[in-house]
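Please decode residue identities from the backbone states below.
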């Protein structure tokens, strides 16, 4: 179960301590457990949703979104902010884009992007609470983290060395595809028509965002992976609220 604890430590702010430095093979296998981490997040969010039953709707949605962000420690939002700055400031140049993504400072485009994404997530959560369709809280985190697995299965990692390269190089690809198929099947079985719509939106968003990464960078980075997750979660939540 060490790969699961590696995935949980990396993707969450939960107090997880590893017994030592993981082997590269264990890092690669940890990607297989990303959807399971999403399922854990979804279960916690569903539990919080139940506890908040009867609370004012705006506060209910705000607390759910806050918990969602805190569970990941803002990791993926940071990647989204860096990617937003880099895509505008890179002026289409690969090396300049990669350089900007390494800068820890956030510019106005990053702030605007974060505000818009969080606003859309909040609005979608509010609508889903009103419609009593909070099963989305369970499915969307799974699809988002499943998308990270799909990204590493299909897309070159462009920064040599580091954690991302170890993940990409040691990912068991056959098992990874099996995990993705299981995620897709479970989403459809658990959520029915809404789950199928969520899968379609996630797949279309993944294809489009991956194509943008390949065109600009020739692959992905940790920051663009975080941006992918946040944008897909937002898109699926909005689509679910509108369906």
């Amino acid at each position: 179960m060490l790969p699961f604890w590696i995935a949980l430590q990396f993707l969450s702010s939960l107090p997880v301590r590893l017994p030592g430095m993981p082997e590269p093979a264990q890092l690669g296998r940890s990607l297989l457990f990303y959807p399971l981490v999403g399922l854990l997040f979804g279960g916690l969010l569903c539990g919080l949703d139940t506890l908040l039953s009867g609370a004012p709707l705006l506060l209910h949605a705000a607390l759910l979104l806050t918990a969602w962000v805190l569970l990941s420690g803002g990791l993926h939002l940071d990647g989204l902010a860096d990617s937003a700055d880099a895509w505008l400031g890179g002026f289409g140049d690969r090396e300049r884009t990669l350089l900007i993504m390494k800068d820890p400072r956030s510019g106005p485009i990053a702030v605007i992007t974060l505000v818009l994404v969080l606003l859309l997530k909040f609005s979608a959560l509010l609508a889903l609470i009103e419609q009593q369709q909070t099963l989305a809280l369970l499915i969307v985190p799974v699809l988002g983290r499943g998308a990270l697995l799909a990204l590493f299965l299909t897309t070159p990692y462009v920064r040599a060395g580091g954690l991302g390269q170890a993940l990409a190089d040691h990912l068991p690809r056959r098992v990874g595809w099996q995990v993705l198929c299981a995620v897709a099947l479970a989403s459809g079985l658990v959520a029915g028509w809404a789950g199928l719509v969520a899968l379609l939106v996630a797949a279309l968003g993944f294809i489009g965002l991956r194509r943008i990464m390949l065109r600009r960078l020739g692959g992905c980075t940790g920051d663009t992976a975080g941006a992918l997750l946040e944008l897909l979660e937002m898109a699926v939540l909005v689509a679910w609220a509108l369906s």
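Observation: The longest helix spans residues 173-217.
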